[in-house]
Here is the input.
Amino acid sequence: MVPHVRALGDPRTDPWQEILTMAATSGATPSAHPEHPGRTDGVANEFTVFTKIKPGEADALREDLTWLGDAANDENVHAALRQIGTLHDARHVIFDDDTRFMFASVFDGSWDTYIDDFAKTVVGARFDKVFSHSEGFPGIKDPGVKDWFLAHQKPAGVFVSAYPDLTVQQIYKDHRVDDAFQDVLDTAEFRAMLDNPANSALVGTPAFQKLLEEAAA
Here is the structure.
């Protein structure tokens, strides 16, 4: 089978993005927790949770966050995040004189799937370790954990994404395509193609010139 190649100038399409759009517009895959209060910008959703730290456990939480930061460079964690494939970023903050804790992240797609996916990877164990210092946390694999998160989740006053139409999967893909194209640009064969008068019509088109300009930027 010959793979489909998108022509220059055609709208970009992404199967993952089409699924998100269909779910958002058709109700084909409604969330079991449609009332979750996070804000949305394009395909990106924000998730912000505020909890009370168990008395006397702020230092232990701080130590676990230091450990979590060090563990973030673990190849298993990066592999798990790629497996999840929907997390843009995440941050953890201790505040109010060591009495409260905030977890905030940005993700693509279904809120239910986002929570479920974390529980299935090594990231889930790290969630358990950190949130174990919050009052009432039942555990990431507990059937009631989604209700607990909802009870502690608050919507952002403003949420803006710099790239609202790009999913994590599309960003991964764009990075791979850019790397591959840069490799092509570095070949002698490509330079020879540019200099070949037989290709002048193609090379001179606005679309091709834009491609070269973007690659050189």
Observations:
- Confidence is low (pLDDT under 50) at residues 1-31.
